[in-house]
Structures are given as C-alpha cells and as structure tokens.
Amino acid sequence: MPVLGRDVTVPLVTGGEVTYAALDYAASAPALQRVWDDVAAYAPYYGSVHRGAGYLSQLSTDLFENARRTVAEFLGCREDDQLVFTRSTTDSLNLLAAALPADCQVFVFETEHHASLLPWKNARVTYLDAPRTPQQAADTLERALAARDPYGPALVCVTGASNVTGELWPVRELAEVAHAHGARIVLDAAQLAPHHPVSLRDLDVDWVAFSGHKLYAPFGSGVLAGRADWLRAAEPYLAGGGASRRVTRREDGGVDVEWHETAARHEAGSPNVIGAYAIASACKALTEAGFDTLVAREQQLIRTVREGLADVPEVRVLSLFGDDAPRVGVISFVVEGWNSSHFAAALSAEYGIGVRDGLFCAHPLVRTLLGGDPQTQGECGSPEAAPGEKSLNAIRVSFGAGTPDEHVARFVGAVRELVAEGAKWSYRTEDGRCVPAV
C-alpha cells in the first residue's frame, strides 16, 4: 500500500544520500497515499460542521458524520455504542477516565503504554505485575478481580498489542474474565488496529481507543468507541459549544446548561473534520485491501527481521511471552556493548534508517524486560549516556503495510555490519541524545 514519503532521500553523514527507510511505525505510521489524496480532494470544500446553513458547512457535516459511521463499522460497533472523535489514544483514555463512575476500581497491567497506565488518577487503581504467558495474564486478572470490592464499578484496561514487544494480548479471554466478575474492559488498540481487525462485538470489549496517526492517517485525531451509559452520565470532557444543547440564564444571574447525550457531549468546540475524515479513509483502505493479505505480508517481514537478528549473537530481542507468541510488526532489542541511543543514531546517520530508542513511553515494562528496577525514574527517550556507556533503554524497529522489502533488508544488513565493524563515524551526547560529532 503506497505511503507518503516512500521516495524521500536523506543525507548520510559518510557522504551521499539514500532513500529514507521509515521503520518507526509504532510511533507514527506514514500516511497512506490514498488517505492524503482523499483529504486533498475534500480540502477546498472544508467548512465548519453542525453550525452553518451554507453548502460547505452542510457538506462538511455530512462528511464528518459519515466518517463516524465508517469508523464504527470498521470497529464492529454494536447498535447502541457511541463513537467519539478525540485527539489521540491518550485523549480517548483520559476522556474515559473522566467519565468513570464514583469509586470506580481500575485494574491495569504494568506492561501498558503510559497512555493507558496513567490516566486513572481519580480512581482506585490496582497495578498488576507483568505476566510471562497469556494464560498468566488471565490468571493474574482473575485473582485481582476475585479479591476486589464486589459492590462498586470496575474497569480493566489492556493493550491489544504491545508497543514494545509487538506481542498480541489475549483480549477476548481477559474480557471474559472481566465480565465474569462484573467489571468492564477498555482495549487500547493503538498498536493493534493498524495490523489486525478490531471488533468490539467479536472481542466482547466495552470500549476501544486508538489513534489515527498510527493507522496511516495524519492530522491528530483519535477515537473512543463503546458503551454509551458512562459517557452519557458523565460531565462533558470539555465544556463549550457543541457539547451544550441549551444554555439559559437564571433569575439569580447564573447559567443553566442542558448537555447533549450523543457523542457531541464530549466533542465540544470545532472538531477536527479533516482528521476524522482521514481516519475513515484509512479504515476503508485497510478494509478493501483485506487484513488477511496485509497480515500475511507483515508476518513475512517479521520473520525476516527476527531471523536476521537471531543471526547476530550480540543482539537480544525483548519478549514477554516468548519467541512463538503471535505479534505485529514491532520488535525491540538491545545490542551487547552498545548504548542503544548510539546504535539508533548510527542507523540513521550512516544508513538512512529511522528507528526509535529509549523506553517507548512504557517505562515499567522496558525496565522489567531489561532486568532493571521497574520503579526507576526515566524520561520518555534516551537517558543521558555517552556512546559505549551502559544504558537501561532499548532499540525498537516497527513496520507495516507501506514498508518495502528493501527497507527491512537494509536494516538487517546494517545491524550485522554495525555489530561486526562498529560505527564509521564519531558520536557525542547532546541534550540527552546521541548525535554525529561534527
């Protein structure tokens, strides 16, 4: 599937240029060419939604609401589910956190991305230790829910695919455990939705959250979809126009507000119409391409990377569930004798390969996988360690529907060459990052 930037060339510190190999899909996937073309075709007709009687406003409103229906179909939403457009997965989960009933108990594994680990500050939170098998995940949740206060509301938050290891989580089994104990479950599908079908109905989850920028759609939009009752009962996530149905002055000088009960309740202000349309376009493109075909090709790329890394004894791939666990195109690893920031910098500067290094906004998980203290403080990025110094961080390579075979082959060859021969250039630490010395 063609993506933007596939022909971009970048300079190499050793001289010359090379086509950029974008292997950081887990952070932000490049936009599909089709998505960009759809947005460009709509752009001249852009107008404010739900507000105007003019043709462009009405056209934009129809496009916005049709996008909602398209995404709802893509997610297998049930008839009474509600779909709210947000800014991102982080925004979606913070919205849900703000809508939790009073005295709600939240259960979340330490393996979560910070977007799903941290929003629950107003709830009673139980953090669960990292499981080492899918069955252990279900058993751990079973014990935790069995010991909870049975009289209050409860929510389980779980990822669909790890943003660190790429491993698939047993979502359906965890949903069964949650519901057996009267708890609800929200799925962080940020890393799952770009690679596999996600259906609220089939997975039997109560909510799903994901981001457009990981689903080959730019413009900073996200989705929270699922059960409407908690969302309708909660105060609006943002107060303002669009969320309010009627506002009147009282005799005492105050203001009375009647809020919408639809998704508009949590979509105050002028929504990101282009972002919503881009997500809908990406959903259509992925559906029409067929996930069976996309998954089969991605599995080939995964095998190429994993087999290539396995041939380098100095490389250790990080995993919770083991080598045979099903996974998406996200692989993290460390290289013996290398600072991870130094290795990633050399891949970029000397080979034109973009990967990520650090803790991937999943600090407890990465530190657990690396054998460090999961409680240790750390920044979202590389620690301040000079080339060659030991650091408690890792390197992540990630790819998807738009990744050419050549990019993966170049990455594997670059890893082998760097480990065998070392970097060709000198590097230094600048503002906590390893950069080529000039």
From TrEMBL:
The protein's required cofactors: pyridoxal 5'-phosphate
Keywords of the record: Pyridoxal phosphate
This protein's record includes keyword Secreted: no
Taxonomic lineage of the native organism: Bacteria, Bacillati, Actinomycetota, Actinomycetes, Kitasatosporales
Protein's name according to its UniProt entry: Cysteine desulfurase
Native species: Streptomyces mangrovisoli
Matching Pfam families: Aminotran_5
Classification via SUPFAM superfamilies: PLP-dependent transferases
Aminotransferase class V domain: residues covered: 23-411
Tagged with keyword Protein transport: no
